[in-house]
Amino acid sequence: MQLVAYLLFDGNAEEAFDFYARCLGGKVTRLSRFGEAPPEMPMPPEMRDKVMHIRLEVGDAVLMASDAMSSMGPYEPIKSCSVAIQLDAPAEAERIFHALAEGGSVQMPIGETFWSARFGMLVDRYGVPWMVNCPPAQ
After folding, report:
1. What is the CATH number of the domain that holds 128?
2. Do 51 and 92 have their domain in common?
3. Tens-digit pLDDT profile for residues 12-65
4. d(C-alpha 20, C-alpha 106), whole Å
5. CA 42 to CA 70: how far, in whole Å?
6. Which residues have C-beta within 8 Å of that of residue 29, sequence separation ≥ 6?
7. Coil, helix or strand at residue 65
8. Which residue among 84, 99, 120, 124 sits deepest, i.e. has the most Cβ atoms within 10 Å of its Cβ?
9. Count of structural domains, the chain
């Protein structure tokens, strides 16, 4: 079994996943638009070019998302949840943290804690909360 986070965006999922691919060193391996849906699944015209599904692969890890359907009501940003990244090297944790924080807001600067060689929290430019963690060396 693999647990996978699935994020919803306010019409900018493709842009966000291009950003994540650069920050995390991954690759977008799937991109489907609402306009590609079969005719029996009518889509509002404003959704035709929006992302129905996008998949990012980083090593063995996967992150997926779509743009929120306008029929679901007004978009609301993620609350009370974070995407957590676990890394082995403090330098890589710092690099990824600072890359994701570009244009976003840092909630807790990355640094050493009593449980971790590096830990930090941020909300990226797309409103997605992240926690970056690197456990202490064994």
Report:
1. 3.10.180.10
2. no
3. 999 999 999 999 999 999 999 999 989 888 888 888 999 999 999 999 999 999
4. 17
5. 13
6. 55, 56, 57
7. strand
8. 120
9. 2
